[in-house]
Design brief:
The structure is a homodimer. By secondary structure, chain A is of the alpha+beta class. Chain A has 17 helices and 18 strands. The model of chain A has no long low-confidence stretch (mean pLDDT about 95).
Amino acid sequence: MALQDLRAGTRNEEGIARAMEKLKAQFGERFQTGEAIRHQHAHTLTYIPPQLPDGVVFAESADDVKEVVRCCAALKVPVIPFGTGSSLEGQVNAPSGGISIDFSKMNRILSVNAEDLDCTVEPGVTREQLNVHLRDTGLFFPIDPGANASIGGMASTRASGTNAVRYGTMKDNVLSVTAVTASGEEIRTARRARKSSAGYDLTRLFVGAEGTLGVLTSVTLRLQGIPAVIAGGVCGFPTLRDASNAVIMTIQLGIPVARIELVNALQIRACNAYSGLSLIEQPTLFVEFHGSEDSVKLQSEEFSAVVAECGGGAFDWTSDPQARAKLWKARHDVYFSAKSLRSGCNVIATDVCVPISRFADCVAETEDDINAHGLTGPIVGHAGDGNFHVSLVIDDTDPAELAKAEAFVARLNTRALAMDGTCTGEHGIGQGKIPYLERELGGAVDLMRQVKRALDPDNIFNPGKIFHLD
Amino acid sequence: MALQDLRAGTRNEEGIARAMEKLKAQFGERFQTGEAIRHQHAHTLTYIPPQLPDGVVFAESADDVKEVVRCCAALKVPVIPFGTGSSLEGQVNAPSGGISIDFSKMNRILSVNAEDLDCTVEPGVTREQLNVHLRDTGLFFPIDPGANASIGGMASTRASGTNAVRYGTMKDNVLSVTAVTASGEEIRTARRARKSSAGYDLTRLFVGAEGTLGVLTSVTLRLQGIPAVIAGGVCGFPTLRDASNAVIMTIQLGIPVARIELVNALQIRACNAYSGLSLIEQPTLFVEFHGSEDSVKLQSEEFSAVVAECGGGAFDWTSDPQARAKLWKARHDVYFSAKSLRSGCNVIATDVCVPISRFADCVAETEDDINAHGLTGPIVGHAGDGNFHVSLVIDDTDPAELAKAEAFVARLNTRALAMDGTCTGEHGIGQGKIPYLERELGGAVDLMRQVKRALDPDNIFNPGKIFHLD
């Protein structure tokens, strides 16, 4: 966070003016400069104030992307890729102005190789669109960050979500990308084999680079077979530590749980009120198992034994789709249920991730911190990964509340780093987490700067994100 | 392969002489220059001729590594990290001379965090050493490339092996590394959280970089719970395609098979003779399941159904450790059993990896190629990944045979690339695969060069590997 770090970059006014002229001539109606559209393309789901691009190109092909990059590279004008605008740390802001590339029209599914469990898509394809398309093949793309984000955006922020505990994050599920580099050429980072040790892992370099090293033009993804049966349920625990112990034991036993989410007591209250659940207000695990009928039964039984050993309450599981859907809809709607805890307020969603052995400590200390400072901030966590979110419900028009929220986020990050954790498990650095990245990785950030300077010498790709170059 | 590409680099004679003097003064007996030791440190398990370093430092700490790198960086002298010397593509050769850093004395296990399922080790720790150390914790490190390689070497070549189909490769199992960079400073690429989206994925950049971007000083690894039960068996198929179809179906159904290895008829004959098995000489799958007693039973039954559907023979599985051990020892000994097919000959182990839908085609065409050219080359494959090895059994003192082998490897790589595969699934590029990397990734190799130049401007780290800079 740290609003003070939301620097306005230097604007290359002359270059921007010339780029605007050229792009207008080239793209006509597909180049937009109206305030509303520019505002929408600097939209963010947090409190970070928008910094508008100067214009938006609605790209329809890799060739369009090449043209924009070539134009902007020649004139040293920033290029900011835009998927659906669901990023949370200011990733689509334009602190030095420049051109936003909107990918909503680059939303073709280019190929699906069912036997190889992979597909190649344009960056603007959203995960829901992809899964609807895949349904008849018996395959699905498992990464689910909550929002119906674009695949390009998810790759760029190294997104994950509720079922990363079983299926991994975007790091694990991108086989290769094509990208337009600073030279205006399109490169492909890898072939379609499921593994390779052929040279530097450029795929993983682009995944999580937040558009600062080049602009993605396609993404090849690993897919999974749709499980024959999905079962799940909820289980309450007397304390956070008991719930965390159940998670640790589940992972250690190798029970291939597909989702294991911790929801704290305050968030349960919010879910009960907003989503019509009637759960006891206590630390609760939402779990889900994927497999054959026999396999989910076995997993559920093994998990029940874990729950019993860790002092949890009754664990009722079901493979009834309607009951499951209600539960997970409530989990997905935590943003809105949190918001409903204080009328007229907004939610600041923040995330940290710690080694699982410190998860209970980190969540418990964070709860205490929230209470001690009179904040409203329910907690949900991807417990199997040690990753959790606080949804701070604040009146963001009140500078005092905003300052209090920022101070809280600073303490939260300090706490996570002290536990050998990371300042972001899945939201990325963007602008909001820049100071924490430096504290997390120190000298390694200099290496990142060296890579950035080598691949983007004029700093045209999404400048002012992840780190400052000066 | 392509011996013509094993260039001798330019030697910086003056720098090397001064570095030798300084290192002798600094390290005394821990700096060795005898021919036998230098030869051993350029040893490779393939036909690639050794190119000796000028001296070998036996490092005992990260500080030692820093001292060597600082000395060599100041004098622009190559630094080549050395684990156990089990790499297969000339990774430890010193084409421009320079200093080999031997890690056999940096073999401490620095920490094991059982609850977090991770550990941190020095690069010289071998995988067998680590697994013996871990035994009492109930955990194990799953990556098994066959050789008792060092963890540093395995990270650097992005190794994998028989159980990557379930547990992934080194890419998936390294949480972070510390490395000494060209500035002589030690950086840490990530914290210990199981996932992170904090900045560029430097961990994955070092994994597979073959020591060309810096020298690893420690590796933090993900661990797995030792399965309560391990079961497995073998199953023959009339054709390669039937066996491959069984693999594809197994993966698509999400049966969490831990190993699924294809062994071709010739290799079965070699195993029967060398390892005292009595299998029918036909394409055969070796499979293994990890889990609870109920879970492995379920997996075995699900797999049996797949086998039946794909026309396979009887699938007998067992969780008896002795029967399993004999089987997998035979699988691990394929190098030796292949070698025994022609007395007085050596084995060239090569590897490619293709999308799984092309696996049967690629293996079948490769068998035909071997037969058409009168070569002896049994095949084993990590079928679940589409990765396979040919063990060419040749008289490598005969230039004509060597040339025939090289021509075969060229055709094998051309075939894999034409199927959208990679020239190496797990051995790395080293020197032997340099020309194929260029054909595989084209312009992306230029990006690798840009990264290399940025992080190692004087090209001191393992020069002449992965790509040529000029």
